[in-house]
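Q: Start with the shorter request: fold the first protein.
A: Done. Sequence, then structure:
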Amino acid sequence: MPVTTRRSKRRASQTVNSKPAVDPDDSDQSNTGDPGENTSDWEEARGEGSNASRRKKRARRTTVLGFSKVNRRGIRNRAGATIFPTLPLDIIFEILSLLTPLELANLAQTNQAFHATITSPQASKIWKIARKAVWNVPDCPPKVSESAWARLIYGGAKCQVCGTPNVHKIDFAIMRRACVKCKKKKFVYAGFFAKRYPDFDVGILELLPYTDTGGWSHGHSHSRSRFYWEDDIYAIAKIYGQLQGDIYSRIPGASERMQKFRDERAEYVHTVLAHAKECQKWWDNFETNRDQDNRSQIQRRYDEICRRFRELGYLDQDIRAIQRHNESYRTRDVTERVWNRIRPILEPLIDVARCKRVEMGQTYALDVRKLLVNVAYDNYKRTLRPIEWIHLPPTKFIYATPVFRSLVYANFHTPLQQAACNEAAIRLPEYIASYRESLNACLLQSMAGMGVFGRVNEQARLLPIDQGNDQLSLASSVFSSHRYMCLSSADALAHLAYDGSPAQHHQHGTTHWIDLYENLKRAFSYNSRGASVVKAMIAELGLDPMTVRCEDLDRLDRRFICQLCRRREAPQSRDRAYSWRTGVTHFLENMSHYLPLQILSQSNWKALNEDESAAVRRAEGADPAWQQEMWSCNHCTIHLNNLQTYPMVLDHVKKTHALDTPEENVDLFHLYPSARQRPDPLLFPLRLTSPEDAEELIEELI
């Protein structure tokens, strides 16, 4: 068989013009007769190639199915040619009958020799065998080739006009698979034809196939509706116009040709519509059978997944937790590769179900085991500087780690010993470091998804680690966790620590913490609106948002006035002076939801100077957080699991550690910054002439 190369193109062209070895009117003879007489057209092309043109052209290096080989000089190596071209045609057809219809259509496009053989009348039996083997598709409609029919049925669920995916429905009357958008654009309703095409004869609609399902019907048909494809209208109108022109020119026989054309087209339309009805019945049955097959494949996949989890020691009542998961609704068989991919996805769900079941049935034993883990965790905390407790994961999160989860929620027939918990706690630094790295990676990924580092789809892992950590420590890196707003990654860690502490009024169950351990990225999302507000406040202070951290703003402790509140209220009313943290919360809770991002980026704040801010701070009085029992000494572990108020801890530091002027975050600290009470904003005069006037006015207010 010749290769479609520039040098051998003469041989391929001979194939099209060569006579077929089998009578085209008797397709059954393709499988019978003398093998010597029933040779393929490749042999004829090879024999007639010597009389073709001898133009020398550079040979391409591509070959088809290895039928010929080309050496480095571009000369065909005849000794290496395969035996396939020399086979009898019936054997070749027997081999081709093993292919699917789409494979046959693709093979027909490889070169002219294959195209001549596969599209010949003798090959019709091959197509029938292929269609019956794959979905049992009906015969192709009139004037449609087998290749075109195969591409329509098997060519993929996408629109043939624009390429839109997931277009499954085929309109057999117009022989197209089109999306709703293209149908609305291309369909022409019969009732609007005369108005839309005033120059066309309405009679041409009788010569075109039509469908009763329009673009606005959502797949529902109406027997009285007729929709025509626009391209078909123009194509038939061109032929119809030429025949009419012949009639107007009084060309002999023009009227007879017009009448013959109309009769043939009317018969063709009748045949196409009848064939479309048969195809639609087949399609409905096919979809029903396909749905049944899919359900059986899904059930087989789910049973196989359950079997594998049973072998790992899980119970059926826990395995049922994955029944509604997407991975349980797929049709692909569970191979080792698939199992290695889906096991990390499904196993946490089963683990959560197991832990919930254990908590309901083993309450006392579970409390004892958790107490042993708490003792091991407290021993680890005593080895740290107390202020480091702020950013440690909560004890409930420690229960969710795999090593402690296996100790707490499994093997109840064996009592848990403190030594086992202490041994597992040796790796706590490793687990906590991994926890922080995972959280930082999730925060960076959330920022990258919002376009902070450039393109919206830029991966956070492409950002240098040092640069990413610096970005997370900035005050302008704002994240949201449900209804709470975290300023910087340190605040996110502190929020998780408080969320799982006994001080938190709303206690999350085991499901929450195991799910959080397995998928930290669900905990936080980047808040671009909050970041815009913080950047605007920093800019009002004359600082650089790319360098300012939360500690810097806390140390300045300036007060701000919301300019948007001033515009909304009466001019003579007094403004409220906010700290930078309460100001961000005020802005996001009251105004952020209806303001565009470009407005949030503008300067909507007025920063009070240091003297005015100092006067406001004095007017605010004692810090309300001092009365919270969330304070601890930073020089000893006496307040571990026994937090006190600020005055109590202050007195302890002065007496026990002999410090006359203890400093916050140096000698004592608030363990839960995310739950710290902030001073309420005070009313502030609009105009102040001096710091002394500010103090007098504030004293009058309070």
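Q: Next, the second protein, separately.
A: Sequence, then structure:
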Amino acid sequence: MDCTIRFVGALLLCSAFIGHVANCQSLFEHVFAIPQVLKASNKPRVLITTNSLDPVSVNVSVGTGFEYTTTVTRYRHASIALTTSIRLTTSGKSNATIKVTSSDIVSVHCIDNEMWGGDGFLVLPTAELGKQYYVVTYHSTYEPYDPPYPAFFCVSALNTGSVIDIKTNAGEIFQITLEAYESYRFNGNAYEDLTGTFIESTEPVSVISGVYTKVPAGISGTDGLLEMIPPVESWGYHFILAPFLDRTSGYVYRVISHNRSTMNISNRGSVDIEAESWFEDDISGDSVITIMSDQPVLVVQIMKSKGAEGNLYDPAMIIIPPLNSYVNNVTFPVIEMVKAYTYNMHVTINCIYANELMFDENNSMRDWERLDDHEICIIRGHVTTGVHTVSHQDPDAKFTVAVYGLRQAGSAYAYPAGFNAASYSEDEITTKANLATDELLDVSPTSKAVDREQGSGSGSGLGMSTGQTKTTPSLSYSQTPPMTPNHSHHSLNSAILVLSVCIAIFFVVIIVITYVLVAVLRRQTRGAWRENHTTLEMRAQGAQNQQDVSATSQQNIADVSVYTNLDKTSERQVNITDSVYTDLKVPDNSETYECIHK
């Protein structure tokens, strides 16, 4: 019975291991689409890097028929130029979905390499995707010599039969169904800001949103904003916004909330945001802003247009990772774009760890420009194109890295170098939500965000002033879905895990049946042996040749014997040729054995 229990335990461990491998495999897969922001004159690029010293095999495929296989290491990255026609342009479905698979963990970045409308984004692995998202864009605008370019978002499905409900911030509700590796683009109306549009899917999906615009509205300098949006279940509570190097005019940031939230913002005090709404603020100069919320929120930071700082650089948008998503080591590309660029990066880290930061493994960052804000240090500097690494020898030192390229009187791009997805259990969310506001947000003076009057139609996002909130109309057919984390980020992983458990149960049943049969057979065999032994004794008593009888008896004993070591431990029972054996794992160097009968 003991051997059966051990075997069943081994099967269950194997099934759990298979499920774990399936989840790890989703770390090696990235699925996304590239929406067109402005025009399609240059090829978009996919850049793939890894921390691994060993070669990592990478396959890049597109549903339209393109496929490419390469190998990357820590010192060799892949830069893959895709055709211009791969961009999604009009509203509707498309098979131009990009899938990157690899034999080990890699980082994937995408650059829309356009001179006047480009931007870049970090591609999240499928293990970090979810089912609930909020779109983040900006006010749609246009130049006098161009038609208006609407705000947009793209949804890419991982699994067949993904049913997706979409509720725009203007109150429009509709539903689409996507097959595996199929994408859908939605274009808003002219001048419409799609921020706050809610997306909910029955299966994990990836979401990318953006717009061609000026930041803030009304000044010169139009460029593309483009980002891959983290799902609701990976949002965070504590954020730090750092000023961009070589950008003197400051930045704009937006905070998106799924549930009603109270935030402490270092330059504003206490700010309340209603459920399904967002907050915007305009920051000037080199100001470091900290945000702490009692509910999970999403934060994006946007560079301002060139008109805000003397005809220099145009806007770009970047996702701000929460503190619990910070990393200890990250390898990332600095991507060369068309024309001449200035390439910068900054690291946000606790000041007690700042002096030991290392750049490209062996170079200290002590001489880099440093901004201190209480316990927060921002380390900034110029970098060259190529692949770089930022690391810290202390495993407790966590940081985040922002990478951005600037071209004078032209375009810009920005993206996070990498971050760990933040995921909270339901208990963690409840605990944080129940914290007393005055304990969590101990600041003064207090300033409340002014509720913004609801807009309608395509212009619902226009005209929002600094420090106000925008509320998205609630669903008319149901209540807002609760904030529940998606612990199985990929339904395929769940299916594999369920299948593994079913297989394990099947084998358990087989083992139990086999054990019963073996027990019955063992009893029958022992009875037969005793009967034979009795017969032999009877024959021995009446036989004249005792030696012949003993030889016959010894032959029968040898037929049901096996070699085993003398301690007779860790026994395992098996059925071989209708005889019962006691078998052990015999070490190669074992020398002392005896032939016994059980």
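Q: Describe the second briefly.
A: The mean pLDDT is 75. The longest strand covers residues 198-214.
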